[in-house]
Specification:
alpha+beta, 8-stranded mixed β-sheet, 28% strand
C-alpha cells in the first residue's frame, strides 16, 4: 500500500530569516500547506508574487479526508497547472444511485451534456491531491518562481497592524519572527490563527456523527456514488459508498449523536459494521478511520485587515455534497487575482472587500444547501421523518419527487449574483448560465477547450462581434479572444454564450467569472466594466 502520507515532502530546514538581525518582511505568507493553502501559494507564484508557506507539519495529510472534487475546482486546478495529474490518478464519475431500505429508488447523471474537458466529479484521496500541489510548487520553484515551502514552522502568535502582520514562528531550532505585507490563513477548521486573533464561527453544530472508513478491497461495485437511506445494515440511519484509486473504498456510516467516539473508532467495532454492509465473507483492510460531526458555520468576515481567511479556516459545512475543499479552492481562485492587483498598485485595497462579499455569498449558499441536506438525511422530528420517507417512496416511480430527495446536494459552481464587481447584463436573449457573476461554462474549441484559452487574465471574449485586440484602462488590459459560432460544429458555443443573440462581447475576470456582457463592442462600456471589476468604480 502506498504510504505517501508517511514521507516528508517539505521537511524542516533552517532559513536565513532565522538568523536575520531584524525580522524579514515577505509579500505574502500563507499559513497552512493543505490543499487550499498550496493552491493560494501556487496561484500567487504563477503571477510572480513572492509567497512563503508555513506549516507545522512536513508531509501530506493522512487518510482520504476531502475525497470528491467537482468540475469547477478541477478547472481551477487546470489553470494552476495541476489538473491533469488529478484526473489521471482520480476515479472519474458522473452517475449516482439512491437507495431506500433494500431497493434503488432512482439514479442520476451529473453531467448529461457533451463538450466539457472535465467530468462532473473525480474521487481522489487528499494525500494525492496534496502531493500533486507540492510537486507543482516545487516545479515552479525550480523555474525561478518566488515560492517557498517551510515545513516544521508553527505560527504561535499573530500581530496584525494596518500596514502588515508580524508572526512568531516556532521551529526545531527555536522561535523566530517574520513579517508579511499580507497573510492568508488556510490552517483548517481548528484554525490557530483564528483563535489567536480572538475570532470565532457563527452557525450550527448538528447532533449527529458519521463514521468514515477507508477500506482496501477488491470489489465489483461500479464507479458511482451510492447513498442509502435506512439500509438493512444500518437501520434508522444512512450510508454512503465511493470508489477511490488503489482499490480504496470510502464508506460513511451514520451513527447518531449519543456515542463514544473513541470506542466507535476501534477496529473491533468498525469491522462488524462494515461486514454487515459488505457481507460476512468480505475481505478488506482498514486504511483510515475517523468520526465527524455535522457543522455548518462560518466566520462573520473573511477579511480582517491584512489577514485573509480561506477554506475550512473561514467556513465549515457537513461533508455531504462535497463542498469543503471544493469551496476552499473557489476561495483562493477569487482572492488571489484581487490580492495581486492590490500588491501591483493597480487596484485599491477595498477590492479585497469584494472577496468578503463574494465568498461569504458562496459560503452561505453552501451552508444553506448543506443544512438542508443534513435535515433531510437526519430528520429532527417524527413528522419530518414521515415526510422524508414518503418522498423516497414516491421518487421510485414519480420523477416529480426526485428533486425533493436530498442525499447531499452536490457541489455546483458559485454564481456571484449581486456582486459589486458585476456590470448589469446588457445581452438580450443571452443564456442564464453565462450571466454576469457566473463562472464561464467550458466549450470545445478546435482540438482544445475554451477555459484553457482564457487562462488567468482579463479577457475580452467576442463571438461574431468586432473589437480591438486589446482594451486598456487604469493599467489593466483585457486581451481579445475572437470566436465564431459558425466554426463550432457542436453548437455548444452558441448554446452556452449566445442563446438567441446573434453575437456577443464578454468581459471575463482572471478567475474566469463573467464580469459583463453586451451584444456588441462599446469601448466606453468595456472600460467602465474593467474599472468596476477592479473595484475602482
Amino acid at each position: 500500500m502506498n504510504k505517501i502520507f508517511e514521507v516528508p515532502l517539505y521537511p524542516y530546514a533552517r532559513v536565513a530569516d532565522q538568523d536575520a538581525e531584524t525580522p524579514v518582511c515577505h509579500s505574502v505568507i500563507v499559513i497552512g500547506a493543505g490543499p487550499v493553502g498550496l493552491a493560494a501559494a501556487i496561484d500567487l507564484a504563477q503571477a510572480g508574487h513572492q509567497v512563503v508557506v508555513l506549516d507545522d507539519n512536513d508531509k501530506v495529510s493522512w487518510g482520504s479526508r476531502a475525497v470528491c472534487y467537482a468540475k469547477r475546482p478541477l478547472e481551477i486546478l487546470d489553470r494552476l497547472g495541476c489538473g491533469e495529474p488529478m484526473v489521471d490518478k482520480g476515479v472519474v464519475w458522473n452517475r449516482g444511485r439512491v437507495f431506500y431500505d433494500e431497493r434503488q429508488v432512482y439514479d442520476f447523471d451529473l453531467l448529461p451534456e457533451e463538450g466539457h474537458r472535465r467530468p462532473a466529479f473525480i474521487n481522489l484521496q487528499q494525500y494525492y491531491f496534496e502531493q500533486n500541489l507540492v510537486s507543482r510548487a516545487r516545479a515552479l520553484e525550480a523555474e525561478g518562481a518566488p515560492i517557498e515551502l517551510r515545513g516544521g514552522n508553527r505560527v504561535v502568535s499573530v500581530d496584525a497592524a494596518d500596514d502588515g502582520v508580524t508572526l512568531t514562528v516556532e521551529t526545531p531550532d527555536g522561535p523566530y519572527t517574520v513579517q508579511a505585507d499580507w497573510v492568508i490563513a488556510c490552517d483548517g477548521a481548528a484554525s490557530p490563527v483564528r483563535a489567536m486573533m480572538g475570532l470565532d464561527f457563527v452557525g450550527r453544530v448538528f447532533e449527529d456523527n458519521f463514521l468514515i472508513a477507508d477500506v482496501v478491497m477488491e470489489a465489483g461495485f461500479p464507479t458511482e456514488r451510492w447513498f442509502w437511506f435506512d439500509p438493512p445494515f444500518n437501520r434508522g440511519q444512512s450510508a454512503l459508498l465511493h470508489k477511490q484509486p488503489d482499490n480504496v473504498w470510502r464508506i460513511d456510516l451514520q451513527l447518531g449523536w449519543d456515542i463514544d467516539k473513541d470506542e466507535e473508532k476501534k477496529p473491533e467495532n468498525v469491522i462488524p459494521r462494515l461486514k454487515a454492509m459488505l457481507g460476512e465473507d468480505a475481505q478488506f483492510e482498514l486504511e483510515w478511520v475517523s468520526i465527524y460531526t455535522f457543522q455548518c458555520r462560518r466566520m462573520e468576515k473573511f477579511r480582517h485587515g491584512r489577514v485573509l481567511f480561506a477554506g475550512d479556516a473561514a467556513h465549515q459545512v457537513s461533508p455531504f455534497g462535497a463542498r469543503g475543499a471544493n469551496s476552499g479552492l473557489q476561495d483562493t481562485d477569487n482572492l488571489c487575482w484581487k490580492l495581486g492587483l492590490v500588491m501591483d498598485g493597480k487596484a485599491p485595497e477595498s477590492l479585497l472587500d469584494s472577496y468578503d462579499e463574494e465568498r461569504i455569498h458562496g459560503a452561505d449558499e453552501n451552508i444553506l444547501n448543506s443544512t438542508r441536506s443534513t435535515d433531510f438525511i437526519t430528520p429532527k422530528s417524527d413528522m419530518s421523518r414521515i415526510f422524508r420517507n414518503a418522498v423516497l417512496d414516491l421518487s421510485e416511480h414519480y420523477a416529480f419527487a426526485r428533486p425533493l430527495v436530498n442525499s447531499g446536494r452536490l457541489s455546483v459552481p458559485c454564481v456571484y449574483d449581486g456582486s459589486p464587481l458585476n456590470t448589469p447584463d446588457a445581452l438580450e436573449g443571452g443564456p442564464d448560465r453565462s450571466r454576469p457573476g457566473a463562472p464561464c461554462p467550458d466549450t470545445p474549441l478546435g482540438n482544445g477547450f475554451l477555459l484553457d484559452r482564457l487562462g488567468g487574465r482579463f479577457t475580452l471574449l467576442t463571438i461574431d462581434a468586432d473589437a480591438p485586440e486589446t482594451v486598456e484602462t487604469g493599467g489593466i488590459a483585457a486581451t481579445r479572444l475572437a470566436l465564431s459560432a459558425a466554426a463550432d460544429r457542436s453548437g455548444a458555443l452558441s448554446d452556452r454564450y449566445l442563446g438567441s443573440a446573434p453575437g456577443a462581447v464578454y468581459l471575463i475576470r482572471p478567475d474566469q467569472h463573467v464580469a459583463a456582457r453586451w451584444p456588441s463592442f462599446d469601448a466606453a462600456a468595456v472600460k467602465a466594466a474593467i474599472t468596476s471589476a477592479t473595484g475602482r468604480a
